[in-house]
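Entry under discussion copied across for reference:
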Amino acid sequence: MDRSGTDLWLALAVCVLLGLLTGCGASSGSRTTTPPPSSGQFTHVYVVFPPQNDPNKTHFMNTVINQSAIEGVTVGTHWIDAETGTPGPGTCSPVGTDTCQQDGFGWTHTYDWSAIDSDNAPWFAAQSGTKKVNVILQGIGGAGALCLITNSCVNRLTPYYVTTSSWAAHTASSTEDLINANKDGCTNYLGLIATSMTRDQNGLVTVTSHGHGYLNGDTIWIGGTTPSNFNIAQESVTSVQVASSTLTIKASNSFPSGMLVTFQNLGQATFLNNQTVTVLNSTPSQFTATFAHADYGPTAETGGTANPLGVRVKNATANTFQYQTGILSAGSASVPGTVVSVQQSWPVPYETPYKTAWEAFVAAAIIHYNNSPHLSQISYMRVGRSVGGEAYPPCTPNLEQIPPPNTYTKSGWLQYYTEVDDFVQGQKPKMQIIDPLNQVGNGTVADPADPTYGTAEAQIAVAHQNASGKVNGFGSQGMQASDITNYAANKDCSSDWCGTFNTFYQTGVPLELQQVGLSAPVPESDVNSPTGDLRPLLPFAVERHATIIELYDLDALLAYDPNYCVLPAVNGLCAPGSVEIPIIVLPPQNQLPYFQAVGQPGQQGAKGDGSYAAVINSTQGQH
């Protein structure tokens, strides 16, 4: 994309269509003097994903939600909580309601909103119903550092049926493609941690994993074990040979006979890329398969991978299950690995099986909230495109290896993004719609960051509107400290939110920012987050025209709760009765320094030299 020309032309074209040409500023790439906040700008402050359980929920209700600067909360509406059954022909009636929808291929889907409404009831009732509630529709669950300590690093939000062959047949498509760490090296933050793994002389591994939930026949992948020959995971290919239609692959592996394997990124034997073979025989150092091709090699490979299509669960009990490897020797894993199943993996969201089912849920959700008695309290709805209600496609290098017609392209992703907006607009939502912006890539050489996705997505967003003609807003869920330094250095903010806000702030569309994670106000806090200190970040966001800022719940608790850290500290730790914070988010020994930095002036032990409460209370800007 030519950002210096094409993007600006598209942005101005959108402004002309909206009758807003005089209010549109420079496109991405322009880092001229910061315009002042527009006259009458008011920046709304919400808390995203407030605590659902005590003790933090009581703290939150008594100390945060009653603050005048906190206008309400942002909550997730999870697909799996509404559609708990399996669709089929004539499963419900009448169609076209929040409890019954018909998909594009003729099957009906049944929804139950009772659990979701019950969870949201306290937020709608907070402060006698004066607080706002934003709704995020989420169909794919995210994973991160916190899930490693809670052993919950799996996608739990997509209904199981989306990944089945029967659903693929119904949608006249190939089976839904999946991404996970063990299968294709996408991310380490996906999979359940096993307690133990033992293997008998026949290669049958018994896994102990309490409450794993797997059933006989489920497809799983295993990775991260020591020794590695317990893994059913992506392996590096070191050599390829074809002799008399027998393919021999040298790779450290435990693939059992009969398992399907695909290949990617082979630099020499390119004829194998995206091919699928069935393992005939396996040893710790190689496997063979039947493959029709002229004799070849052996030839060394340096970058290729063999990606298993999973192995089946056998003999499952409540706390154990088994799977077959190709290593026919007894032993135990000194380091148990992670196990992830088909339904716990990330589905590729733009593919027909996922998209068809997702649209039916989105239609039901819009009807449900359109008819909610609390509609006036819903300030906006965000419809996720991918993981966590956001818009980034995970692991694009892997998605680019998917065979046609689902091979990933930037233009294809933006078309999917547009299709979702078209669909949402067609459902005539009564509330404001806000679209997510995300850059693509993790910033490595193999997967460089591309913030121009955010630029294009903003332009798509403002070309759509709700039932009353209010143009969609947009925003980034990645606000972080580097945005300040990058902007000052004439570089893009994450997802190019700075550039898009410059372009559209005078049009009056809502411009939303959510911090990327828990903040890190002092170096000794050991918080592994790029958010940094909120005290300079929030004023920067207001100056850059943000009209909605969403804080993580723990940051809001730290700002307003006088009992976040109960003093006097004992051995440097906050005393019993303090807010409960997972140790991986904020280690106990670092909570007192954190509190001293962000506590309100007058709180015992707080330094009082610029509290979080003070900066949040002043965030609302000109009004």
